[in-house]
Write a structure and sequence with these properties.
40% of the residues lie in helices and 16% in strands. By secondary structure, it is α/β, with parallel strands linked by helices. It has a 6-stranded mixed beta sheet with strand order 2-1-3-4-5-6, with helices on both faces. Strands 7-10-11-12-13 form a 5-stranded parallel beta sheet. A 4-stranded mixed beta sheet has the order 21-20-19-25. Helix 2 packs across helix 3 and helix 4 crosses helix 6. The N and C termini lie far apart (67 Å). The relative contact order is 0.08. The structure holds iron/sulfur cluster. Iron/sulfur cluster (SF4) binds next to loops.
Length: 627
């Protein structure tokens, strides 16, 4: 029997007076944990008499090792996991430090760093965290384990259990769900409970259960919670999630800001506030995505069922409240995907707050220019777009539901609006072929004026569509990444399916195949940096409008800039194609010019790399020169 949500209320006779929530290294140091902030705010409202502390030991670690070094480590999973891996399993240190040095050699900031010194520095900070808390006064300790936090959480759990063996430990977060949650609990006896999916309701039930005078077995199983007593009977644990996000109070980041205030003055900074509009991904359940699996490589949504989002006024009020309370203006939306229908209204209302916000968000490349303009007006200065590929054929294999010309459109629009587009291009995707690479290379020739994409090698995520249907993607076998076998003892590695998987398949072929793209991406980065390094940050490809003529300026890498003049209808057609259009539509729009003139003009523009063409659709690449 389990408690209905309405019964999850504070119990006046509760034995539970205090709980502690912990987010361990290595998330971004410059943001409080949204997982902890949201849980704390929700639990405070549910249990007014309960003291809830949210510990952010990662901020103390960042202060100690230095922000640059911390950032470089937190940027790479294996660097991050190896530090505390060596602390939990010192007998494995020799193998683990090899992982560290191999990964560190790719980062200029980490070259020369001594692994032994680093782990002892981190260990001392974490030991102090454990020493500074009176664990005996605490009734429950909870860990949010997300990317890069596995070994550090396990290390702290062990330390805390040594001090206070009877203290119940609950873990949750995006690193484990479903069957993996059972595997984790079986392998680490220090863990008493695992929450599957979002934490608000399960944690509330657990608090009620632990706080009750008789921890009755009748209360088990608790939806969304795996208790140690139940781990041998693996069942489908399921989720227990809020029906609506509208009742969530704004996250509580007080504890993070308290730590920040306690840092040495020269170490203090203005953090970014994480905010949340939605949970899940609407693209997964969109009718156009017939397989309903979401993008083939993505496993970001394993901890949620469906897509929920807050209403507009709540989001706006929350951001207003958080920025006022914490006196900082930088806000990052943590959503996998903002809601498509509501976002414009959200950004329009945020602009109405009359605060100089600095916003970051992740969006799909189908986002319209008007939407981008609303985002810009509200203060969005940086975005990550789900670009992933510059070949439509490959985008189909990735189940992205987008095309190369849509990706080029949003790259162009970001350039025009001055929004920094920090997006990725995935290489080595299983089953990609020579045609995908050729299409990519062709598109890259036109993408040079825009901010370069970051190269990301495909990695196999547990629970992603490729992982589920690995044979369908041409792979022969999937298994834990071999680094887990170095970090963890063999019995643990055999019993848990970890988040990062490896595979046997076409990787050797893929590495060879994508070599020219890697080279071209490097050239892109070099030329973009070089051209912008020469002075102003004005666009590489821009135009000035003379009302009935247009002057296009095309800056080039280590060569003089070219200029082109378009007069009369040529100007009009070029401006019309700032939004990509089909040839048919263009011809219909310019009946006097006629197809016999429009088509050769567009071909000439494509040859000069001033217009991008795909399947008879045309996109003008030059953006208005800044005034
Ligand atoms: S990559 Fe983004 S859009 Fe695609 S399934 Fe994942 S969250 Fe959704």
């Amino acid at each position: 029997m389990s408690l209905p949500a309405s019964e999850i209320r504070s119990n006046p006779g509760s034995r539970l007076k205090r709980i502690i929530l912990i987010s361990t290294p290595w998330p971004l140091y410059s943001r409080p944990s949204i997982q902890l902030g949201s849980l704390k705010a929700y639990l405070n409202a549910q249990f007014p008499g309960l003291e809830i502390r949210a510990l952010h030991p990662y901020l103390k670690v960042a202060e100690e090792v230095g922000y640059e070094i911390y950032s470089a480590i937190s940027d790479r999973t294996w660097l991050a996991e190896s530090v505390c891996g060596a602390l939990i399993f010192p007998e494995r240190k020799r193998g683990i430090e090899k992982i560290f040095y191999r990964e560190a050699s790719r980062s200029a900031k980490l070259r020369g760093l001594h692994f032994g010194a680093l782990i002892s520095q981190v260990g001392q900070v974490l030991e102090k965290v454990v020493r500074d808390v009176d664990w005996t006064s605490c009734g429950l300790v909870g860990f949010s384990i997300c990317l890069c936090q596995l070994t550090s959480s396990l290390y702290l759990i062990k330390q805390i259990k040594q001090c206070c063996p009877g203290l119940p430990v609950v873990v949750g977060g995006s690193m484990f769900s479903g069957g993996q949650a059972y595997e984790l609990a079986r392998s680490f006896p220090e863990i008493d409970y695992v929450v599957n999916g979002e934490g608000e309701l399960p944690l509330s039930r657990l608090i009620r259960y632990i706080g009750s005078t008789k921890q009755s077995d009748k209360l088990l199983p608790m939806p969304g919670v795996i208790a140690r007593k139940e781990i041998e009977v693996e069942d489908s644990v399921g989720f227990d999630q809020l029906e609506s996000l509208n009742d969530l109070p704004p996250p509580d980041y007080d504890d993070y800001f308290d730590v920040l205030k306690s840092l040495r003055p020269e170490k203090r900074f203005f953090p970014t506030l994480p905010a949340e509009v939605s949970r899940g991904c609407w693209w997964k359940s969109t009718p156009g995505n017939s397989k309903h699996t979401g993008c083939a490589f993505c496993n970001l949504n394993l901890q949620w069922d469906g897509y929920r989002f807050k209403n507009v006024s709540q989001v706006v009020a929350e951001i207003d409240c958080l920025t006022t309370k914490y006196r900082t203006l930088s806000v990052a939306f943590m959503d996998n995907l903002l809601p498509s229908g509501k976002s414009k209204e959200i950004f329009s209302q945020l602009a109405g707050l009359e605060k100089d916000l600095r916003l970051f968000a992740e969006i799909r490349s189908t986002t319209s220019r008007t939407m981008l303009m609303a985002m810009k007006k509200a203060g969005t200065h940086k975005i990550q777009v789900g670009i992933e590929a510059l070949s439509t054929k490959l985008l189909r294999k990735l189940h992205k539901g987008t095309t190369a010309i849509q990706n080029m459109q949003i790259m162009r629009d970001c350039e025009e609006l001055g929004i920094s587009n920090n997006s990725n291009i995935i290489i080595h995707f299983p089953g990609s072929d020579a045609e995908d690479v050729d299409e990519t290379l062709r598109t890259l020739d036109f993408a040079f004026p825009f901010r370069p994409l970051r190269l990301v090698r495909f990695w196999l995520g547990l629970g992603s569509p490729v992982w589920h249907d690995f044979r369908g993607f041409g792979l022969k076998a999937v298994f834990n990444h071999r680094n887990y076998g170095i970090l963890f003892p063999p019995e643990v590695c055999r019993s848990i399916s970890f988040m990062i998987q490896s595979y046997r398949g076409d990787l050797g072929y893929q590495r060879k195949l994508w070599q020219p793209v890697k080279k071209r991406l490097l050239e892109w980065k070099k030329s973009y940096t070089d051209i912008h390094g020469r002075g102003t940050r004005s666009p590489i490809l821009s135009f000035l409008d003379g009302r009935d003529f247009l002057i296009i300026r095309q800056k080039r890498y280590r060569a003089e800039a070219l200029t082109h003049r378009l007069v009369g209808p040529s100007r009009a057609i070029y401006l019309f194609c700032q939004q990509h259009r089909s040839l048919k539509h263009i011809v219909e729009h310019f009946p006097k010019t006629g197809a016999d003139k429009v088509a050769p003009f567009l071909k000439m523009m494509v040859d000069k790399k001033l217009v991008y063409e795909e399947n008879d659709r045309y996109l003008s690449l030059a953006v208005p020169a800044p005034k």
